[in-house]
Every structure is written in structure tokens, then in C-alpha cells.
């Protein structure tokens, strides 16, 4: 770049009457001074981007450090790369060069108007699991270049159900509850069971009564898993609530699903109970129906109903 002007500094000796050049300062054009104070930068954020399967995503790429109000996109080049966990090298996703758009991924796009304002964001429709990874935005604004990276995670929120929501069991008989967690990704899910008694106290469920199977992969890459809870209640368990607790990274908090238990007594069990108790305590028991709830209708002889 040509020098506009210079200033010569001299050092002189009164004794010798001579002067010597000490240094020479140069003045550069104002435009050069302004440019030299700025450095081209690409900003993409420090936290991972999380997007749901089949959603659309725009990955930001903010350009700063250029000297004009808007970029002349004819002098700009942008290349987007993707490095997936399973790949050894980056692959091109999208290229912008001197106004030309070249998509290496179906549906990928950039906006000219956004780019003029310094936003080289990449838009991707219908995102898939295989597209998760590290995205790199490489920018050239002649004669400078810069790049930045962003991490993209693709997830799928589980569909969770607990069945049955209300369960009726005869005393000392056995039934099961099923907590089904379907269509989730990544394949990291936590399922727990707890029992809430009638006095609203939580208690753990015996491990031997819980069976959680291995997750099964679906055709779309999501996973399913089921957890089974075996119930073999006594009369004292009537009214208890059994809760399935599911944790997954797509849930802001743990998901809670409840099933209420009703315990009944078999009619023939009541008859047997009547005979035994009658002989031992001289009590009368009046069965209410073929199956009764836990309120037994008992009466002492010659005494009112209690």
C-alpha cells in the first residue's frame, strides 16, 4: 500500500553542527487504519443445539469484523462441513461462492439477504439422527478468513403409557402393571417404580417384582422399552397408588404416571373365612356379593352391625 506522507525526525549536535536521521514515521490512509483494527470472526455459540427428529433447524454462523454496513456477497465464500461421530473426515454440506449456491445435502440452504447482514446461517429441513455431529462454518471475506463450530444433537421425546390406570385384584392373586416407553432417542432412559400408600407415604418396590426389558430399536432409529411390575397384594394394599417414574434428556422434569389399586375378596374365601372364624370366635360374617371389597360385614351374635 503506498505511503501518503512521512515525517523525518532528526537528531542534531551543536558541537559538530551535524544532524542525523533518527527515525521516519509514516502515515497510512484512514481506511487502512480502520481495517487493520478489526479481525474477521465467526461466532456460533458455545452450547449444543438440540433438535427433534424430523424438525427443521437453522444453525447460526454470525460474521463480524468486516468494515462495511453490509457484505458484498460477490466477495464472500462460505462452506459448511459436518463431522459425524462415526466418520473419520468432514463432509461438505453446503457451499456458497460469489453468489452461487451449491447444496450437498437435499434441502440445505442459505439466505443472501441474511448473508449481506453477516449471518451465514445454514437451514436444514427434516433433520435425521445421522446428521448429528459437529458443524463447521468456514467464511472467506477477501482477503481474510475465519471459521467456527457448533454441536448439533438430534433427539426424540418418548411416548410413555402406564396400563392399566386402575387395577382390581383379588387378595393374594397376581396381576402386572406395564410402563411402556416408546419412540425415544438417544437410547438412554431411566424407569423407576414406587408405591404410595393411603397415608401418602412413598415406599420402594421390591426389586424382584420389577422386570425391565432390553430396549428394542425401531426402523426409524428410535427405541422402545417396557418395565413390568408384578402385584400380589393383600387387603392392606387396597387404595395404594403405584407410580412409574421415567427420566429422559428430552423431559424438563421426571414424568410421573399413576395406577390405583383396588383389592377385593373372593366369595369362596369369605365362606372359608366365615367357617374358621365362626368356630373360633362365634362370629357371623355376611358376604356382600360374589366378590367384596375390603370392608367385611361382620357381626357378633346378638349384637348390632359394626
From TrEMBL:
Database matches in InterPro entries: Ig-like_dom, Ig-like_dom_sf, Ig-like_fold, Ig/MHC_CS, Ig_C1-set, Ig_sub, Ig_V-set, Immune_Resp_Modulators
Highest taxon of the lineage: Eukaryota
Keywords associated with the record: Immunoglobulin domain
SMART domains: IG, IGc1
All copies of domain Ig-like, residue ranges: 30-139, 158-264
Protein name: Ig-like domain-containing protein
Organism: Gopherus agassizii
